[in-house]
Amino acid sequence: MDARIIKCAAAALAVGLLTVGCSSASGGSGESVSGGPDKGTVRVWFMQDSIPQDAQDYLKTAFEKEHPGSTLKIEIQQWDDIIAKLQTAMASDKETPDLAEIGNTTASTFASVGAFADLSPLYQELGGAKLIPSFVGAGTAHGKKYALPLYAGASVIYYRKDLFAKAHIAQPRTLGELVRAAQKVKAANPDKHRNFQGIYLPAADNHFMEAWIFSQGANYARQNADGTWKGTLATPQAGAGLAMLQELWKTAALGASDSSQQGAAPWVPYNNGEVAIVSGRTFAEKNISPEMKKNTAVMAIPPVTAGGVGHSFSGGSSIGISAKSQVKSLAQDALKLVYGKEFQAKVAAQGWIPGNTDYTSAIPQSLSSGQLQAQIVANSVLTPTAENWAVVQGDNIPADFWAQLARGGDAGKLARETDGKIEKVLNKK
Questions:
Q1: What percent of the chain has pLDDT over 70?
Q2: Architecture of domain 155-310+388-426
Q3: If we measure between CA atoms, which residue out of 108, 102, 97 comes closest to residue 82?
């Protein structure tokens, strides 16, 4: 989910406005995805800069060719205030889009309140196990699948292979080796750069921080059998990741107190030669200078034990059919085209990981191969799929936690306090 809409989502939820399904939750969201007239107009909401124009053109042309007399209308939406706009539109039989793109971390909220129709009967036909698992989980509620992955963006680690070679450091295979590599390359400082550090580690980059606990098998919270939520930062698994981060900040990291704006541009200290390691979305590659790029290698966040990749957060979007749609059968046919080879390949050609990872071969070649990106996304973990998670983020609970941790706060105490805050929000009725 785009960070720009987190606060919008939280504000709407906090005042109890998310009523898109409400009275229809038992009927609308549980109904068959089929139904409606044989001809009509299917309205599709895609977000600005999400789906490339050639994919949009293909979807419209293919649908209208398959359905003479029907129209597919694509309406591009802005991220700002999209939650409020969606909840208003999707509560109306007349105003709702029939297919709607939604941020992946918001999918669980809309699924929980009955905003989307049940896609479970279509799951296998649309890709089944090939669909990004973490996104499928985010769009699942009450044992049914309401929103499925549309696309994702992979986060990778870029590092200076020339500096690693001069310092006799191999590519890290584990989280522990990554910590030691940052410390060793800092100590060696092969280029003798003033104030050189091993890694750029801004606490404001919450999602990179999360990878250190996700890879340990932890998360912010887990759901109990009775449906309540329990904070899990104060667990041994999360604690191991937090200890590694604090060790890095103390010994080999730059940027602990940098703003979110600075943290969103990790290529700046990297291009300046201030650090040897940075994390960023694959789209960051275009901002790495040509001089640095020729000396750059890429890897995934490593696991705790060597073998495979670690677990990182992947941003992106999901898509579903509105529970209020009056043309569900037609919307279902449009959704099948979305998950077909032609559409998925066009999305991949834009640089996204397509919702069906079978089509990642269409991703343009770069420092990070499509194969690596697909592996990263397939092993991604999202924040808790709780109805009130957007409120947790909107209240800056995770952001405050990471900031205090970076400043050297007591990890155990901070974890316990934050667990309590998370539980209070997630368990609020």
A1: 92
A2: 3-Layer(aba) Sandwich (3.40)
A3: 102
